[in-house]
Amino acid sequence: MAENVSPLRGILEREHSLIVSKWLECILATYPEDSAKFLKNQKDQFANPVGTTLSKELDSVFRELVEMGAAKGVREFLDRIIRIRAVQDFSPAAALAFVFDLKQIVRDAVLEEVKSQGLFDELARFEARIDEMGLLAFNIYSECREKLYELRVQEVKKNVYLLLKKAEMITETPAGESEPVM
Predict the structure, then answer these.
(1) Cα–Cα nearest to 121, from 4, 3, 7, 20
(2) Which tens digits make up the pLDDT trace of 39-70?
């Protein structure tokens, strides 16, 4: 039995490369000019793991959205992008704006056909999926930042402990903790 593909899905699949390319440009525009050039032009995945990951995962996220994949699939790909953005020097809004930028990129690419074929309801449903993805991105970002803060607190505790031990202000390791190794 042939799968019933919606007209909007067919348009989005046809415009896939253009949309993902513009989406990547959008995210790269958030970086300083020299960094953006490097991230875009350096194709060696070992010399440019960030650029490679962004390009690959944006493509995968868009493919999942178009295919109406499960949220779990989108989360997996989105997680790899958000982990990068969460450790960089971006505000939460700047780190996640790329998700919502996709709506305008899609509109620019497909609006004429959406108008001519009367596919506004389908486009609205697709944009609602992007909004859901934005909420998912926020959750992922929050989890990543929370983990970063936990790691920083652990590092501070370790450093304070070592300083106190070095100053001979404490002589034993607190119960339940292993002594930090230097």
Answers:
(1) 7
(2) 988 888 888 999 999 999 999 999 999 988 66
d(CA 32, CA 20): 20
pTM of the model: 0.79
As given in the structure block, the two tokens for residue 171 are: 């002589």
Rg (CA), the chain: 22
CA distances from 29 to 23, 57, 76, 98, 107 (A): 10, 17, 24, 10, 19
- From residue 48, alpha-carbon distances to 53, 57, 168 in Å are 9, 14, 46
25 and 53 Cβ atoms separated by less than 8 Å? no
Residue ranges of domains in the chain: 7-146
